[in-house]
Write a structure and sequence with these properties.
Elements: H1 4-11, H2 22-154
Length: about 160
C-alpha cells in the first residue's frame, strides 16, 4: 500500500495531507468517467427528452389554445353576422307585414266605401223610383180629389165627373 511517505518520494515535494495517493486518484478518475459517461449516455438524454416533451406540450398547448381562440373568434364573428342578418330579415318581414296590413286595410276600406256607395246609390234609385211611383199615384188621385173638392165647393160636378 502506498503511504504519504512514499508519495512524497514520487512528487519531490511534501504537501502534507494534500499529497495525492495514485491508486485513489486513478480509481477516482475511472469512477468519475464511468459516472460521466453513464450520465451523458443514459440519464441526460432521458432528462433532455422529457424536458423537450414538456416544452412541446407547453408550446403546443399554447399554440392550440391560440388556434382555439382564433377559431372561437371566427365562430363568434360568424354567429354575430348570422344574428345581424336574422335581425335584418326580421325587420324586413315586419315592414313587409306592416305594408301588407296597410294595403289590406286600405283595400278593405275601398271595398267598404264601394259597397257603401253601391248601397247608397241603390237606395237612392229605389227611393227615386218609389217617389216617382208615389207621385204618379198621387197625381192621379190628386186630380180626382181636386175635381171632387171643387165639385163640393161649387156644388156641381166639375171636369170629368160632369158627364
Amino acid at each position: 500500500m502506498t503511504t504519504l511517505a512514499s508519495n512524497a518520494k514520487i512528487f519531490n515535494m511534501d504537501l502534507g495531507p494534500l499529497n495525492p495517493v495514485w491508486a485513489e486518484l486513478i480509481i477516482g478518475f475511472a469512477v468519475f468517467f464511468l459516472t460521466f459517461f453513464f450520465m451523458a449516455k443514459v440519464i441526460l438524454p432521458k432528462i433532455k427528452r422529457t424536458i423537450e416533451q414538456r416544452e412541446d406540450a407547453i408550446d403546443g398547448g399554447t399554440e392550440r389554445a391560440d388556434d382555439l381562440r382564433s377559431e372561437a373568434a371566427d365562430i363568434r364573428a360568424q354567429y354575430e353576422a348570422e344574428l345581424a342578418e336574422a335581425r335584418h330579415d326580421a325587420a324586413r318581414i315586419r315592414s313587409k307585414a306592416v305594408e301588407e296590413g296597410s294595403a289590406a286595410i286600405a283595400a278593405a276600406r275601398a271595398e267598404g266605401q264601394a259597397e257603401r256607395d253601391a248601397i247608397l246609390a241603390a237606395g237612392g234609385a229605389k227611393i227615386a223610383a218609389e217617389r216617382e211611383a208615389a207621385e204618379r199615384e198621387l197625381n192621379a188621385d190628386v186630380d180626382a180629389w181636386a175635381h171632387a173638392l171643387a165639385g163640393r165647393i161649387v156644388g156641381e160636378p166639375v171636369g170629368a165627373d160632369r158627364a
